[in-house]
Specification:
This protein has helices at residues 9-18, 58-63, 77-93, 100-107, 111-122, 126-142, 148-154, 160-167, 175-179, 217-223, 237-248, 264-275, 284-290, 297-305, 332-346; strands at residues 28-31, 36-38, 52-55, 67-68, 186-193, 198-203, 208-213, 228-231, 282-283, 318-319. It is an alpha/beta fold. It folds into 4 domains: 4-72, DNA Methylphosphotriester Repair Domain (3-Layer(aba) Sandwich), CATH 3.40.10; 77-122; 130-179, Arc Repressor Mutant, subunit A (Orthogonal Bundle), CATH 1.10.10; 185-347, Arc Repressor Mutant, subunit A (Orthogonal Bundle). A 4-stranded mixed sheet has the order 3-1-2-4. The chain has a 4-stranded mixed sheet with strand order 7-6-5-8, sandwiched between helices. The longest helix has 17 residues, at 77-93. It is globular and about 70 Å long.
């Protein structure tokens, strides 16, 4: 589903039968016996295959003499995309909070409907997106600001206390620590043998910040050059044992605390990865569609590659659009074994 060129008509037919809303906006289904065209997710009864043709967009379908289905309103897709673009432009320009009601007025939607459209498209609610945007601005500003407080206010936080509350459990370090590249922070780590491969696991007091295979302290130091690295002791034994169990049985360990940092888009991709059920896979295109950004396969791939926490954020569940394994930071042998174990768990 990665793009129009990646899909055969058989693929599109199966998607329409499954009523998969992730492909809305990627193509439309034309039903020539009724003279209408629909979104792939249209809830109407499936037509006969011989009456169906597929089109890249609404314009092509209408040029073929079809009209939009009133039930699924595929012609509203472009309106929704325009509304989201206008909303994102406003949020990125704004120096302070923007209410849901303001966004609804801007886009001529009701607040409830806009909230639903925004979350489906962006992967976060408008409020969560604004929080992530402020955090991202603060992280960028902290690198160059003379004073931490200046960076916090410039990023749109009303007070330093709001910033520290927002960062708690997400950055794993204070604003000053972030400004200094993590200097003075402590990361506990261990290299543990598993039945898949030697595993490097590292954690702050907040949660796991790195999980990789066939890597050593040297690679960990390259990821966190200014942190103090300490061999994991008794206080981290239980956490590391839970991580090992999750690696030995991938698809478990969803309750293990994580300490991850990323942009708003990266966070939405990582959340989408964690939402893929064990035993299932997605292509970059499918993941992009699930985020409401069907043309962002390359950006999704970049966010996938920025993931420091293998297995617990399961980037191994992303495969090539042709069904092949595709690449993996720690080698296809490990990727294949993780998928095999998950498939067996599903059975």
């Amino acid at each position: 589903m990665e793009s129009q060129n990646d899909l055969s008509d058989d693929d599109r037919w199966q998607i329409a039968l499954a009523k998969d809303r992730r492909f809305d906006g990627v193509f439309v289904t034309g039903v020539h016996s009724t003279g209408i065209y629909c979104r792939p997710s249209c809830p109407a009864r499936a037509p006969k295959r011989e009456n169906v043709r597929f089109y890249a967009n609404c314009e092509d379908a209408e040029a073929a003499g079809l009209r939009a289905c009133k039930r699924c309103a595929p012609d509203q897709q472009s309106r929704e995309e325009g509304a989201i673009k206008d909303a994102l432009d406003l949020l990125k320009r704004s120096e302070g909070p923007v209410s849901l009601e303001q966004l609804a007025i801007l886009t001529a939607y009701s607040p409830t409907h806009f909230q639903r459209v925004f979350k489906r498209t962006v992967g976060l609610s408008p409020a969560a997106y604004q929080r992530a945007l402020r955090e991202e601005r603060a992280k960028d500003a902290l690198g160059g600001a003379a004073r931490v407080s200046d960076a916090i206010y410039d990023a749109g936080f009303e007070a330093p206390s709001r910033f520290y509350a927002a960062m708690e459990g997400k950055m794993g370090m204070s604003a000053s620590d972030w400004k200094n590249g993590g200097e003075g922070r402590v990361i506990h780590f261990a290299v543990i043998r598993t039945t898949i491969a030697p595993m490097l696991v590292a954690a702050t007091e907040t949660g796991v910040c790195c999980l990789s295979f066939d890597e050593s302290e040297e690679e960990l130091r390259a990821r966190f050059p200014n942190a103090e690295l300490v061999a994991g002791g008794d206080s981290f034994r239980d956490l590391f044992e839970r991580v090992v169990a999750a690696v030995e049985q991938p698809g478990t360990g969803n309750d293990i605390p994580l300490d991850v940092k990323g942009t708003a888009f990266q966070q939405s991709v990582w959340q989408a990865l964690r939402a893929i059920p064990a035993g299932e896979t997605r292509s970059y295109g499918q993941l992009a569609a699930a985020l409401g950004k069907p043309k962002a396969s390359r950006a999704v791939g970049g966010a996938n590659g920025a993931n420091n926490i293998a297995v617990l954020i399961p980037c191994h569940r992303v495969i090539a659009h042709d069904g092949g394994l595709g690449g993996y930071a720690y080698g296809t042998r490990i990727k294949s074994e993780l998928l095999r174990r998950e498939d067996g768990k599903r059975d």
